[in-house]
Amino acid sequence: MRSKPSFKINMPEINIYIIIIGITSTLLLFYNLYIGFLFFFGFIYIVFHNWRIANIRKKEWTKYIQNLSLDIDETTKKAIMNLPIPLCILEFDGRISWYNNKFYKMTDSSDLLGVNIDSIIKNLNLRKVLNENKELYTEVTYKGRQYTVVYNVIKNEQEKNAKYLMMLYWLDKTDYLKLEKEYNEEKNVIMLIQVDGYDEVLKSASEENRPLINLEIEKMLTSLETNTKGALKRTSKDKFILIMNKKELNEIEESKFAILDKIRDINHGNGLPVTISMGIGIDGDTVNENFKLANSALDLALGRGGDQAVIKTKDKFAFYGGKSKAVEKTTKVKSRLIGHALREVILGSDQVYIMGHKYPDMDAMGAAVGIYDICKSCNKSANVVLDSSNESIDEFVKRLESQEYYKNIFINKDEAIRNCNRNTLVVVVDTHRPSYTECQDLLSLTKKIVVIDHHRRGVEFINDSVLLFHEIYVSSTCEMVTELVQYMEENVKINKITAEGLLAGISLDTKHFAFKTGVRTFEAASYLRKMGADTVEVKKMFNSDVQDFITKADIIKNSKVIDNRIALAYSEREIENINVVIAQAADELLSVKGIEASFVIGRKDDTAFISARSFGHINVQVLMEKLGGGGHIDIAGAQLKDVSLNEAYKTVYEIIEEYLQEED
């Protein structure tokens, strides 16, 4: 660096001094000519000397500035040439006009000048830079390394006509991404494992084979521990905890949790299949938070029927497995305990409101009326929240309204909201999703909520209930309510029409006792028959008119068979009870030889309804959950708002194709 010059710039005060000397010498000429001339010549010399020094200093300063500019230009060039990141300058057509040493080393190419950047590095969107008046960033992978490319447009003023060039800075972030990946892979993962129906599975095998089943389960889980380099601990007879790194979990995910299928293959004479549920918590801020996430994931896996793995982060879920149907429990102890607790909650409430899901069917309405009878047996007034009826429940609603026993049983949403308080009991039946209920606002107005449902649990759930009766192996909510009636401590008596409504709900969800029927289903039906339920009257509730029959025939006619085993159909007619008709059509399609699952789409107003059915080999619940719906492994559905029939059909078709590809 050049040394700073020793001179100082003339200050404005010097000129003032010279003027004063000039005035003084002029005045002396009047008083003494000799002395005046002497001072005047001195004044002239001072002026001349000052002018000469000023000129010299100006030249030296100009030279200093020029040398400094040269130094800066030289330093800038050296800095750019030796910039620690690759840099190149492009014409707007993509030709390279200049580059530094780092860019040369990065490309490892000679004679780059004039070469179009696209021939060296693809995926550079130079055209977008022209349309944006700001810096842009692009992620590029080149020769195994990852770069963030920063675009910067500059204007060259030295040309007669202003010329625009593009500077590209290449920020190598390969090492950072590698470090980030290693950090993420080393994050801890908590996996909670539970053997589904452990006691029932062991009881289904002979005494001498039970230790073999237990040993086989532990052997497979120990193998999982070894493969994941984790730490496994058995916390109880049917529960385990496994801690591993996220890298190993990613490998298990890639295999679609093959451990679920291996466990299911255990066979030592056991009548029931061995299945496990897994809840995995990841990406929590602490180990404790991961443990809580794993607990929540395990609850969700069990609520969906078990035999599956659920991965939970702070804001999302991932589901794997779920190929087995839930095993019916033989004990009714839980029904008795829930019944006793429900009676206490009813007695301690000011009033009771009962509601099912939107567009209620006979399972929801039958269960609601069953709870209504329980409340009346406890001498508590109750109402069923219902804004409007529909084809599937019209016949039953008319029967209720014609009886004095059910006077004023129904209440609309607005009136229920006005009268609801913190001590009002709200009983939700046949759904566990807040957004699916007849009146979601009631859930935020009370602190007492009871949920009774048999659907497999979804991500959305009513979490703040005081009492939860959620059994996914049960055929219907009506079966659950019937057991509550049977096993409550007080001898509850139900009306004949209530019994018929409950039996109709069971009949609907079991497809007239063909699907999901267990021993307890027939016991509940037997009890309802004893309470006076007339099976002929129940059948009349499902009678359809000629228009519905024709619509159903058209749906079956329009059906398309995918992969020789999945039927997809739609209804072109927009009738009032389209959701009921497409459900019946989906059931009918399962009677076609070779069909394992059926999907039927219908539309009413601005909503597309989808009904899905299967024999259990294809999990239609998982497919419907992708559309925001849910249900069971063999019976499920979904609703799509503001979607045309063609769009809904295309969406369902794509989901089926995706499922078949994953299966392959």
UniProtKB/TrEMBL annotation:
Record bears the keyword Transmembrane: yes
Subcellular location: Cell membrane
Domain named GGDEF: residues: 186-314
UniProt xrefs under InterPro entries: DDH_dom (IPR001667), DHH_sf (IPR038763), DHHA1_dom (IPR003156), GdpP-like_PAS (IPR049553), GdpP/PdeA (IPR014528), GGDEF_dom (IPR000160), Oligoribo/pAp-PDE_c-di-AMP_PDE (IPR051319)
EC class of the enzyme, as a word: hydrolase
Catalytic activity reported: 3',3'-c-di-AMP + H2O = 5'-O-phosphonoadenylyl-(3'->5')-adenosine + H(+)
Organism: Romboutsia faecis
EC number: 3.1.4.-
Role summary: Has phosphodiesterase (PDE) activity against cyclic-di-AMP (c-di-AMP).
One Pfam family hit: DHHA1
Family assignment from sequence similarity: Belongs to the GdpP/PdeA phosphodiesterase family.
Membrane topology annotation: Multi-pass membrane protein
Lineage start: Bacteria, Bacillati, Bacillota, Clostridia, Peptostreptococcales
TM helices/strands, residue ranges: 16-48
Predominant cellular place of this UniProt entry's protein: membrane
Name of this chain's protein: Cyclic-di-AMP phosphodiesterase
Gene3D superfamilies: 3.10.310.30, inorganic pyrophosphatase (n-terminal core), PAS domain
Record key words, sorted: Cell membrane, Hydrolase, Membrane, Transmembrane, Transmembrane helix
Keyword check for Transmembrane helix: yes
